[in-house]
What we know:
By secondary structure, this protein is mainly beta. The chain folds into three domains: about 25-115, no CATH class; about 115-195; about 220-310, Sandwich (Immunoglobulin-like). The chain is built from one helix and 19 strands. The protein has one helix at about 1-15; strands spanning about 25-35, 40-45, 65-70, 85-90, 100, 105-115, 115-125, 130-135, 140-145, 160-165, 175, 180-195, 220-225, 230-235, 240-250, 265-270, 275-280, 285-295, 305-310. The chain has a six-stranded antiparallel barrel with strand order 1-2-3-6-5-4. Strand 7 (about 115-125) and strand 8 (about 130-135) form a beta hairpin. The longest helix is centred in the first third of the chain and has 16 residues, at about 1-15.
Amino acid sequence: MRKLLFLLIIGLSIIAATPAQADYSRKVEIVEAFGKRSIVIKFPHAAQNQDVISSSDIRKAGEDERWMIHVSRGCSDLRNYEEVSLAVSGQLNANEDIIANSSRHKCDIELAEPVTERLFVKHVKNVAKEAILVDEDNNKFTINYQDECQPILGYKQDYVYALQSGDKLQEADRLVLPQKEGVCQTLFVKDEGKEGEEEDPVIETDEEGDTVLPTTPKRARAIPGNSSVLVYWRDSTDNKGISHYIISYSTSSIDPDLRDFEDMPNQVRSNSNRKIIRGLEKDRTYYFYIAAVDKFGNVSSRWSNEARARTKSSIPEDRTTNLAPRAR
């Protein structure tokens, strides 16, 4: 009897020590990190074995596939543009799926949501559950949303994600808030057309002797695209109002404090606090700086913080990564 019990204990120990094998392992890129535990990753459009993880109905035509991922505690070192390894059991659904960074630190995936669009939250009326959103193609929408997405108020002048059923946002599409704050459906969507086309700013005559400079743009961020980069920042303020912004960009990091305003390279105007810079080289890092201009032509005393992004390129598949999910 003792021998039988001993053999039974040994057998159970061997089973418990053998981890389940991942059905699919590959390297992916973090395109955006939120706080300590939420990230957006992308799979290249040309990824193979898409029947394991991906499908055409969760990706815009011709675009990389993106997922909002929430990880377990202890993964605070995940960063923007970092390449990480993903191990998936069956479908990517947070069931024994894990992620690991370059230091081989493995973390459980607690929630995985496919997303097809990144939306700028221009305005929110939380009592009416109404918001104005602008998509990556500069299309503007007025929407009503479910109670579950009331935390969207905290994303005003920032970004959320959506899983769309078509090329544009429409009724019953899912909104996905970063940092695991909510997933809900749109109840009503009105297409408002293109967000304000760029027009020449009106600079007023300085008859009142305005010498107050607009505040410096803050929290500048850059999100890479195919031969393009979306740059956005917090609005500046001014006693007479902001006329427009100037975006300067370069392929090398520079110190704007050491240059005259006119010497800053590749200056582009924007009438809002977001701009898509197009016609860039693929697989190259760009650095961006923003200055504000008020209605009397006064320029902010300093440029914004530096924002950088590397334009998109394919990520090679990695089938050699040993990332078996941990035994439960």
